[in-house]
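Whiteboard transcription, Tuesday session. T.W. wrote the structure tokens on the left side:
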């Protein structure tokens, strides 16, 4: 196995990065942070140019490209749809991830692959660490866990970064749903018995850059803002940040309701999937900022409705 050198940030020898999934919530944050950054030379492949369900397209696109790092922010992310399309979820999240890992290893490049808190079953009371037992309870979670294993089996030097409850400017997510409800209705009802770790996509590229400079950083690492909170507390944080920025909210309070009252969820979800980030801090010396501070920055990028 070739030892991959740590990335040394330098404008004279930029790190050549391939980005997959640049139109997504997470990939959009890498595009935003690195596209105009001298320390990186970014090459993007959209789904139209490199479809992860087509192994020959993956191979031929990457054969034509020189790169040091591959950021795989592309994934099948529809948690409920995956229950009826498990083979497609597996093809994109697991089989393609394994192929990408093999190509990266053959090229002496580092792969940065992303996974999820949904690899856990949610039965543990305290936030999960990287070595805690994995037991996905959904087809999406199983496909992501299989992807982790395939990447790790190819090379222990690739990074497998577990995120959770992602929000950011590139695509609407939970905060946008909360704001839409709160601007239209006098009450926003949000589940208060499901716990996790909100994560701002804007923070992820900086964390990844820090990890790439640390030679011993490899394998599974948890990357979230934290601290852990319930969906209701998360929604309340969105409302508080929006109120502070002068949003015209009809509802300023997120009313707690039980998970059992929520209709229409096909897939089972872990009820407690907060992630512990001490490994990341040990490796980099960095402490992810609390999610309410990141939420304020995220909402400050939005136009306040008139
Ligand atoms: N969102 C969360 O709350 C969350 C939580 C934990 C972990 N994660 C992980 O974070 C990563 C990024 O998630 P995200 O929320 O940014 O996802 P997203 O917004 O749904 O974006 C996914 C990206 O993957 C691309 N894609 C999907 N199928 C593809 C295919 N067959 N071939 C090529 N590209 C394909 C999409 O292309 P199009 O632009 O054409 O649609 C899109 O650009 C994933 O690994 C996910 O598991 C996300």
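and on the right, the sequence the group agreed on:
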């Amino acid at each position: 196995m070739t030892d991959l050198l740590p990335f040394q940030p330098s404008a004279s020898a930029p790190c050549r990065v391939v980005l997959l999934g640049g139109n997504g919530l997470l990939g959009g944050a890498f595009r935003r942070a690195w596209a105009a950054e001298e320390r990186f030379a970014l090459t993007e492949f959209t789904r139209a140019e490199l479809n992860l369900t087509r192994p020959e397209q993956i191979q031929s696109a990457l054969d034509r490209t020189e790169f040091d790092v591959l950021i795989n922010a592309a994934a099948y992310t529809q948690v409920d749809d995956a229950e009826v399309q498990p083979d497609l979820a597996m093809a994109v999240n697991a089989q393609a991830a394994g192929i990408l890992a093999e190509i990266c290893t053959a090229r002496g490049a580092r792969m940065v692959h992303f996974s999820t808190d949904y690899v856990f079953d949610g039965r543990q009371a305290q936030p999960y660490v990287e070595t805690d037992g994995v037991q996905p309870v959904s087809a999406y979670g199983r496909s992501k866990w299989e992807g982790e294993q395939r990447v790790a089996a190819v090379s222990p030097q690739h990074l497998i970064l577990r995120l959770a409850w992602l929000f950011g400017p590139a695509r609407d997510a939970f905060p946008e749903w909360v704001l839409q409800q709160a601007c239209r209705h006098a009450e926003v009802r949000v589940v208060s018995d499901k716990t996790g770790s909100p994560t701002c996509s804007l923070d992820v590229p900086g964390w990844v850059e820090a990890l790439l400079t640390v030679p011993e950083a490899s394998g599974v690492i948890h990357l979230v803002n934290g601290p852990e909170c319930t969906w209701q507390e998360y929604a309340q944080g969105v409302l508080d940040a929006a109120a502070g920025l002068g949003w015209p909210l009809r509802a300023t309070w997120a009313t707690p309701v039980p998970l059992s009252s929520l209709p229409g969820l096909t897939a089972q979800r872990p009820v407690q999937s907060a992630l512990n980030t001490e490994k990341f801090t040990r490796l980099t010396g960095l402490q992810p900022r609390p999610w309410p501070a990141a939420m304020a920055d995220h909402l400050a990028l939005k136009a306040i409705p008139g």
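Someone added at the bottom: The radius of gyration is 19 Å.
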